[in-house]
Each structure stands twice: as structure tokens, then as C-alpha cells.
């Protein structure tokens, strides 16, 4: 979660004190203060309540989008007129695009499908805590296959032809790195030197996530 954005939304955009926000949310002042200080991560329900209170999107609060507008994010999905297939959970094990592996569908808009192309869009269920600063376990993340990642983008990546995971893409002149974004410091990045074999395949670049049932 982007704690600076959360503080700015409260203080600059909505002119509220931490005490006022805590009262609106029905939680203790110390609990809300711990969100802004980065000591505690709001659960999916609390993130949604924060987004509603500040009239923005969960992705903006998490730092996954630079747009404060709720359009194109979770609140738009209520009136969605199309869907994206979800192919399973993203964790150890290769992702299969076979129809029998579809576990559900994520609602979206026809506009988004037309923009990226239906064949390029896929959803994966997030498990584990390695990305809990940006993506929460239990959410469904949507990715686009036909995009080149830029440093800082979240990507779904296949490591060593076996382990599918979600990480932050980073690149230097010497190496490509897939880094965690977690409150747990025990998670380590995958690093591939450019002068050595690079056994990875980027499956897609992250677009958005939702906690809606699939």
C-alpha cells in the first residue's frame, strides 16, 4: 500500500484528521494510524471502505494506478458488460490456458476488452504474501499478455518453466530482476544476469485487481 497516497487523500484532498477517518470507518485511531505508518496492512474489506471514503480506487491506494478516478476499477465492475477468464491461482506450478482450467470469470467492460484484445486478457487468483504491499491474497488480478513491461510494473512470470509467480519487474544494464513487494522481508527477488541464461517467461503485465467473487 502507498502510505503517502493514503495520507495525502486524507489530509490534502479531504481535509480530515486521522481521528475523523477512524470514526468514519468505525475503527480505533491507533489502527488507522498504523495504516498510514505502514505498520499494518488493511484487509480487502477495509481497503474498499477506504477507497469509498476517499472517492478513489483500491488500485490507487495500493499504488497500482496513478489515476484517482474510480472509472475502470472495481466500482466500474458492478455495471460491467463483459468478462475475463480466470485460469487459476498464481503460485508454484505452471499456468495452463486450457479451457478445463478456468475457475471463474472477472467482470469487465467491452471497452477494455476491445482495447487490449480478448485473447490477451487473463485473470489469476492471488495467493501468498510476497506482494501484499501491492496485491492482497484472495484478490483476482487481471493481466495482459501483449505488453512489454517497464521497470516498476507488476508482472506474472514463469520461472524455470515451473513456478508461476507475481512480482515487480526491474531491469538494469546487467540484470533482470523480479522483486517482491511485501511487508515480510524474508521474501527475496529472482535475479537473472543478462550474460547468463535467462530461464523466465513473462506471462503478462498487470492491469487491475478485484475482490469480487469469480
How would you summarize this macromolecular structure in one to three sentences?
This protein is of the alpha+beta class. It has helices at 3-13, 18-25, 29-37, 44-53, 58-62, 110-116, and strands at 82-90, 104-108, 121-126, 140-144, 154-159, 163-171, 175-179, 190-193, 200-210.
Describe it for me?
- This protein is an alpha+beta fold.
- It has 2 domains: 3-75, Orthogonal Bundle (434 Repressor (Amino-terminal Domain)), CATH 1.10.260; 80-210, Umud Fragment, subunit A (Ribbon).
- The chain contains 6 helices and 9 strands.
- Helix 2 crosses helix 3 (29-37).
- The radius of gyration is 18 Å and the shape is globular.
- The relative contact order is 0.14.
How many domains would you count in the coordinates?
A: 2
| Name of the CATH class of the largest domain | Mainly Beta
| SSE series | HHHHHEEHEEEEEEE
Q: What is the mean predicted local confidence, pLDDT?
A: 83
Radius of gyration from CA coordinates: 18 Å
Give me the secondary-structure category. alpha+beta
Write the layout of secondary structure elements.
Elements: H1 3-13, H2 18-25, H3 29-37, H4 44-53, H5 58-62, E1 82-90, E2 104-108, H6 110-116, E3 121-126, E4 140-144, E5 154-159, E6 163-171, E7 175-179, E8 190-193, E9 200-210
Helix pairs in contact: 2-3
Amino acid at each position: 500500500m502507498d502510505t503517502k497516497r493514503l495520507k495525502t487523500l486524507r489530509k490534502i484532498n479531504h481535509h480530515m484528521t486521522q481521528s475523523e477517518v477512524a470514526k468514519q470507518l468505525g475503527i480505533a485511531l491507533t489502527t488507522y494510524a498504523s495504516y498510514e505508518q505502514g505498520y499494518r496492512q488493511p484487509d480487502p474489506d477495509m481497503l474498499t471502505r477506504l477507497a469509498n471514503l476517499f472517492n478513489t480506487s483500491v488500485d490507487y491506494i495500493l499504488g497500482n494506478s496513478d489515476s484517482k478516478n474510480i472509472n475502470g476499477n472495481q466500482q466500474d465492475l458492478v455495471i460491467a458488460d463483459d468478462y475475463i477468464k480466470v485460469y487459476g491461482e498464481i503460485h508454484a506450478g505452471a499456468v495452463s490456458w486450457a479451457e478445463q482450467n478456468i475457475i471463474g470469470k472477472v467482470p469487465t467492460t467491452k471497452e477494455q476488452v476491445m482495447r487490449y484484445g480478448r485473447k490477451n486478457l487473463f485473470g489469476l487468483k492471488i495467493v501468498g504474501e510476497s506482494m501484499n504491499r501491492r496485491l492482497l491474497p484472495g484478490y483476482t488480478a487481471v493481466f495482459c499478455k501483449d505488453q512489454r513491461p517497464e521497470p516498476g510494473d507488476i508482472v506474472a512470470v514463469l520461472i524455470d518453466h515451473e513456478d508461476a509467480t507475481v512480482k515487480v519487474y526491474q531491469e538494469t544494464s546487467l540484470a533482470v530482476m523480479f522483486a517482491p513487494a511485501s511487508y515480510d522481508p524474508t521474501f527475496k527477488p529472482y535475479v537473472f544476469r543478462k550474460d547468463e541464461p535467462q530461464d523466465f517467461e513473462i506471462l503478462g503485465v498487470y492491469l487491475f485487481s478485484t475482490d469480487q467473487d469469480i
